[in-house]
Amino acid sequence: MIRPKVSYAVMICCLVVFVSHAPQAALIGPEISRGSIEFLVAPVFDAGDEFEQFVSTVQPSNLLSPGGFYPGRVNNDPTPPIQTIGGTLFNPTSPIHPAALSATANPLIIDIGHFGAAQTTLVAKTVGPGGGVFWENTTVMDSSPDGFASLNQSRGMATFHSTFATFVIAGVWVAYTGTVPAGGFGAIGIQGQFRFGTDPPLDPIAVVLASDVNGSRDPYMSMHGAISQIIEFPDTNTFLAMGINFAQGFIPEGDDAAALDVALTLIADPGTTLTPAAFTPGFLAGVPPELRPLLEAAPVGAGIALVPEPSTILLLAFGFMALLSVSRRAKQKLAQCAATAVDQL
């Protein structure tokens, strides 16, 4: 007959084996993906509003004003000439999975002598159990006169299949470095909207960052729950801007379980250059651990990170309770042995 302490050990081993070999939740796909890229030169305001604004007709995209009294676009309409790839920002048409959508700006099309240069690469993919839309090496350099900014805008959309129903964290993030001459500024804005199953979409989440380094304006970092940081280096006229914003949700099992719609806008004026950068270890330490693999996959993006499903958490809890039970019985047995030894003295 197996003694109780052995049966407890067997039970613990079974729990460990079951949990370690149980299927884990994961996103598959994307099932559908679309993206577009736009390069343009646009006139700017003398001063922006206090809060960031996005063009409401391009849900949820197209940064209009970085806020904090930084210049924003004069109106919602692009100023011709404009170069578009993969449809327009209003209607993305190019697949961004499995191959990335990539384009390099052609100043001869946009505005010779004014636009500068830009490059954008965006792709929809899975990373570990999660997934999203990721921007790789997306840059802009301005050569327009003061009062006209070079803009690099892009939008990505994707839907994913989920193998399990589970809790998720959805996030948007950016990490950029900027080189800003006297009188210039750089602004980065990303905004995303997420939908899980047939539930209504979550409220859009955004990160907006702006800096003029040696200028008179303070660094601007969006509010509304975002974790943001701007480090300025006046001696080299550069800055490092990092930000993330996230929300929680619950994803169902099956097709079309998760959908995201996200847009990135870079504004450079005049003579400013914006380039993706790596997140610092200190910044990553404040990011939810489930999201870190997504940020490590690309310095700019929007994605969905899955957390352990409740059944797995419950199994782990049962295993921990069994360990406590074995530990308690071991202590009781030790106390009984000690008492017996004392009685025999």
Question: How are the SSEs placed, and which strands pair?
Answer:
Elements: H1 4-21, E1 27-43, E2 53-54, E3 63-65, E4 82-85, E5 101-104, H2 107-110, E6 117-127, E7 130-135, E8 139-141, E9 148-162, E10 166-179, E11 185-196, E12 205-211, E13 220-221, E14 227-233, E15 238-251, E16 254-269, E17 273-276, H3 281-284, H4 292-297, E18 300-306, H5 310-344
Antiparallel strand pairs: 1-4, 1-9, 2-3, 5-6, 6-7, 6-8, 7-18, 8-17, 9-16, 10-15, 10-17, 10-18, 11-12, 11-16, 12-13, 14-15
Q: Give the structural class.
A: alpha+beta
Q: How much helicity do the residues have?
A: 10-25%
Largest sheet, in brief, is:
7 strands, antiparallel
* Percent in strands: 35-45%
Please report the number of helical segments. Answer: 5
Strand order of the largest sheet: 4-1-9-16-11-12-13
Q: What is the domain tally?
A: 2
Provide the gyration radius in Å: 26 Å
Report the uncertain regions: 1-6, 8-22, 57-61, 311-327
- On the 0-100 scale, what is the average pLDDT? 82
How far apart, in Å, are the first and last alpha carbons? 33 Å
Order of helices and strands, N to C?
HEEEEEHEEEEEEEEEEEEHHEH
Give the oligomeric state of the chains in this entry, treating copies of one chain as homo and distinct chains as hetero: single chain
Shape: globular
Please give the number of β-strands. 18
